[in-house]
Automatic annotation (TrEMBL):
GO terms for biological process: carbohydrate catabolic process; deoxyribonucleotide catabolic process; deoxyribose phosphate catabolic process. This is deoxyribose-phosphate aldolase. Belongs to the DeoC/FbaB aldolase family. DeoC type 1 subfamily. It catalyses: 2-deoxy-D-ribose 5-phosphate = D-glyceraldehyde 3-phosphate + acetaldehyde. It comes from the Eukaryota. The active site is at K152, K181. One of its GO terms (molecular function) is deoxyribose-phosphate aldolase activity. Keywords: Cytoplasm, Lyase, Schiff base. One of its GO terms (cellular component) is cytoplasm. It is an enzyme of class 4 (lyase). Gene3D superfamilies: Aldolase class I.
């Protein structure tokens, strides 16, 4: 079922202002969303001013920074108050068939996140629109083996976003302990419900308030 706790209330635009971040946080608190998902530069501000769970992005949106850079960025975000870390894999390494690199990078981020305290979560963005089905299937296993908590479809900044087919594939081939997050282009409540029914447990969207308005009040929580 689609509920407010299914939603990472998201604002990742490069021109986002503090006024918009304030509004995002107020909406998240009012609607009891799972998190606010924001750029790393806003994490400390939100942690200092709002009682809301914070999700941020690492290696975003291309995933092409080095592993050491991602680790540094992740540590800074954790220090600033983030609880959910959404990292972007190096997609070029996937295309080269260098899955060992990808697994090692995820493992290092997972170790860092999970060692920083209880209830810290690592989500792995695979940018599914750039991958073939074999690559997606392989990554499902790698994400599980590397110790991440979620596999996530998209950054929302590439050539496509979440699709029902991708959610079904990711749910089918991921280990049971790995959850699925859909993101990118989720603006319609019917589509959001279909993504949940297909196997997603978390949705990354900037349209959370509109989605909740379309839902019966009894199903908000």
């Amino acid at each position: 079922m689609l509920t407010s706790l299914s939603i990472d209330h998201t604002l990742l635009k490069p021109d986002a202002t503090l006024k918009q971040i304030d509004q995002l946080c107020a909406e998240a608190i009012e609607n009891k969303f799972a998190t606010v998902c924001i750029q790393p530069c806003h994490v400390k501000y939100v942690a200092d001013n709002y009682a809301v769970r914070i999700c941020t992005v690492i290696g975003f949106p291309l995933g092409t920074t080095t592993t050491q850079t991602k680790l540094f960025e992740c540590q800074q975000a954790l220090n600033d108050g983030a609880q959910d870390i959404d990292m972007v894999i190096n997609i070029g390494k996937v295309k080269d068939g260098n899955f060992e690199y990808v697994k090692n990078e995820i493992e290092q981020l997972a170790t860092l996140v999970h060692s920083s305290g209880k209830n810290k979560i690592l989500k792995v963005i695979i940018e599914a629109c750039l991958l073939n089905d074999n690559e997606k299937q392989k990554l499902c296993q790698i994400v599980g083996d590397a110790g991440a908590d979620f596999i996530k479809t998209s950054t929302g900044f590439s050539t496509g976003g979440a699709t029902l087919d991708d959610i079904k594939l990711l749910r089918q081939y991921s280990p049971k302990n790995v959850q699925v997050k859909a993101s990118g282009g989720i603006r319609d409540s019917n589509f959001a419900r279909e993504l949940i029914q297909a196997g997603a447990t978390r949705l990354g969207t900037s349209s959370g308030v509109a989605l909740m308005k379309d839902m019966p009040s009894t199903s908000n929580y």
